[in-house]
Design a protein that fits this description.
This protein starts with 19 loop residues before the first strand and ends in an 18-residue tail after the last helix. Strand 4 (53-54) and strand 5 form a beta hairpin. It has one helix at 86-90, and strands at 20-21, 27-33, 36-43, 53-54, 61-62, 68-73, 82-84. The chain has a five-stranded antiparallel sheet with strand order 1-2-3-6-7. It has a two-stranded antiparallel sheet with strand order 4-5. The chain has a domain at 20-90. Helices cover 5% and strands 28% of the residues.
């Protein structure tokens, strides 16, 4: 039996100029959405704080310890940060706004 070889097997390393590690163990990058630059930070499940968040994409809770991402406008403050499910962030361009209607309102 030969010893294990744990060295990387060649290939180009990913370009991480816009990405940097953060205190939660995730990776931060910049994306463009609706003509605005957004900072997006991936939060690993094990390092996620023990708080519940509400995803603005699906309006469902993100339980403590669940992997998700945090997005905010590049020039926004702490109050502009929003916690998203990764799938909801990826589908943000395909979603429409949900209009709340009363039961008697017409559906057109």
């Amino acid at each position: 039996m030969s010893p294990r070889n744990n060295r990387p097997r060649g290939g180009a390393k990913p370009d991480r100029q816009s990405e940097q590690g953060d205190r939660y163990g995730g990776v931060q990058s910049t994306e463009t959405w609706q003509g605005e630059e957004w900072c997006v930070r991936h939060v690993a499940g094990a390092s996620a704080p023990g708080k519940r968040y509400r995803c603005p994409g699906c309006d469902q809770e993100i339980p403590p310890g669940a992997p998700h991402l945090v997005a905010w406008p590049e020039y926004g403050g702490v109050d502009d940060r929003r916690h998203w499910h990764k799938a909801c962030w990826n589908a943000k361009d395909r979603r429409t706004t949900r209009v709340q209607r009363s039961r008697n309102a017409p559906r057109y």
